[in-house]
TrEMBL record:
Keywords: Cobalamin biosynthesis, Glutamine amidotransferase
Top-level taxonomy: Bacteria, Bacillati, Actinomycetota, Actinomycetes, Kitasatosporales
Gene name of the record: cobQ
GO terms classed as biological process: cobalamin biosynthetic process
Residue ranges annotated for the CobQ/CobB/MinD/ParA nucleotide binding domain, each copy included: 10-241
SUPFAM superfamilies: Class I glutamine amidotransferase-like, P-loop containing nucleoside triphosphate hydrolases
PANTHER family: COBYRIC ACID SYNTHASE, DETHIOBIOTIN SYNTHETASE
GO molecular function annotations of the record: ABC-type vitamin B12 transporter activity; catalytic activity
Official protein name in the record: Cobyric acid synthase
Family: Belongs to the CobB/CobQ family. CobQ subfamily.
Length: 513
């Protein structure tokens, strides 16, 4: 690839969860290994799984992961618009890393989204002026024709920036050829001119059996298939939303072999509504001998050695959900028996004594579970930070994304500054709470915490002394790069990134052939 600045590509998908995020990350890792200065980009992201950049901007965690794949520091430019759902009908709008208000879906698509196209284009152009290549990720499907007029993340940005488009399809779901053809045929002639071709994702079996379909697809659309990526376990790292543990496949493999200690450790994560940053438990799932599962019934907590109440975009709603499902009483029984519980961010807030919320739910005064001596008051401003501290004698790093402000009334400090001054959270018996996301990714702290959990749970569990979550994540990103390098037409990809979509691509009328 020549070193002309500003090459680009949009990775779109036939559906949500077709594999756009991981394919984008894979292309970024492959390019940077070729010596190309590359950055990721997603104009608009809808996700509760977010991250805080070093300058204090909130962006989608998937874009932070893609930045890591590209070996660059994530910035707000890489995800200028983030939507954080608060209900089925409304979302918090985060613009350039800062919240700017709540909007209904109708209000957003009715005018606000179209007005943001200029900001999105400016961010992309700034990145293209700095990097040799920018790999953009779309959202959902580019053929959501009901939303095309206000689209700023799929064909809207592709048209504005003249980006070539690759459409990714998940063949594991079935119907991938129909999806490729139908996605293309539903686009306007101007949009179709930018659709360069396709990538088949999650293929199992003999590739030669797929080749007749690939040739027929080319005959029908005039477009090249740039890669057939095989199904690979354990590559769903830092997805936008869902109940998957990104590294769970590796954990299952390690549990088959004897764990380091005599026992395994069972972790249950309460699947609260509007769960945010579910990737907080990935570092636990990466530990040999630790099994992580998501639960929504009280009886599923009985055999758990550790229960985690994770972050949520709706703290008061999550509290009501825990009570309705009998989980609140189960958590209280655990605390009374001295069995470990950890609350993270919104989960920390529900474990406290009292919540005053006129901001998020507008529920006013609400009683918490009373497992920690903490009172929560929701502030209009959002705390966005990347703090560093010490806990259990180990260095710990994290990131904060919350409106709730905690007043700790007692208990023991959880995270301190190293001189005994509390930085965040508290501990009361076997119940811990913190606002810090990502803290379990700090290897020394995670091992110290698991030793405490094992001791309280009466387990003969020993954390692996050499598990490095950062190294494991790098291995996963390298595997993504390997998938692209080994199973994609990389020469054609380089030409596409540098020169744009081939000219003369045929128009496919809806209903053809």
């Amino acid at each position: 690839m020549s070193r002309r600045r500003g090459g680009g590509l949009l990775v779109a998908g036939t559906t949500s969860d077709a594999g756009k995020s991981v394919v984008t990350a894979g292309i970024c890792r492959w390019l940077v290994r070729q010596g190309v200065k590359v950055a990721p980009f997603k104009g608009q992201n809808m996700s509760l799984n977010s991250f805080v950049t070093r300058e204090g901007a909130e962006i989608g965690r998937a874009q932070a992961m893609q930045a890591q794949a590209a070996r660059v520091e994530p910035t707000a430019l890489m995800n200028p618009v983030l939507l954080k759902p608060g209900s089925d009908r409304s979302s918090q709008v985060v613009l350039m890393g800062k919240p700017v208000g709540e909007l209904s879906a109708r209000g957003y698509h009715g005018g606000r989204q179209e007005a943001l196209l200029g900001t999105v284009v400016e961010c992309l152009e700034e990145l293209r002026g700095t990097y040799e290549a920018v790999i953009c990720e779309g959202a959902g499907s580019p053929a959501e024709i009901n939303l095309r007029r206000t689209d700023i993340v799929n064909m809207g940005i592709a048209r504005a920036a003249r980006l070539p488009v690759l459409v990714v399809g998940d063949i594991d779901r079935g119907g991938v050829f129909a999806s490729f053809f139908g996605t293309t045929a539903l686009l306007s002639a101007e949009d179709q001119a930018l659709v360069a071709g396709y990538i088949v994702n999650k293929f199992r079996g003999d590739v030669s059996l797929l080749e007749p379909g690939i040739e027929m697809l080319r005959g029908l659309t005039g477009r090249h298939t740039y890669g057939i990526l095989p199904y690979a376990h354990g590559l769903g790292i830092d997805e936008e939303d869902g109940l998957r543990v990104s590294l769970r496949g590796a954990v299952r493999e390690s549990v088959v072999a004897p764990p380091v200690g005599e026992d395994i450790l069972r972790v249950a994560v309460c699947a609260v509504p509007l769960m945010s940053n579910f990737t907080d438990v990935d570092a636990l799932a990466a530990e040999p001998g630790v099994v992580v599962r998501f639960v929504d019934r009280a009886e599923e907590l009985v055999d758990a050695d550790l229960v985690i109440v994770p972050g949520t975009r709706g703290t008061v709603g999550a509290l009501e959900w825990l009570r309705e499902r009998g989980l609140a009483e189960a958590l209280k029984r655990r605390a009374a028996e001295g069995r470990p519980v950890l609350g993270i961010c919104g989960g920390f807030q529900v474990l406290g004594e009292h919540i005053e919320d006129e901001v998020e739910s507008r529920a006013g005064s609400v009683e918490g579970l009373g497992l920690l001596p903490v009172r929560i008051r929701f502030a209009v401003g959002k705390t966005l930070a990347r703090p560093v501290g010490e806990a259990l004698g180990e260095r710990v790093e994290g990131y904060e994304i919350h409106h709730g402000v905690a007043e700790v009334l007692g208990g023991d400090p959880f995270i301190s500054d190293g001189d005994g001054h509390s930085l965040d959270g508290c501990r009361a018996g076997a119940v811990w709470g913190t606002h810090w996301h990502g803290s379990l990714e700090s290897d020394g702290f995670r091992r110290a915490f698991l030793r405490e959990v094992a001791r309280a749970a009466g387990r003969r569990f020993v954390p692996a002394p050499d598990t490095s979550f950062g190294a494991l994540r790098e291995e996963q990103l390298d595997r993504l790069g390997d998938l692209v390098e080994e199973h994609a037409d990389t020469d054609a990809l380089l030409r596409l990134i540098e020169s744009g979509a081939p000219s003369g691509l045929p128009f496919i009328a809806p209903g053809a052939p």
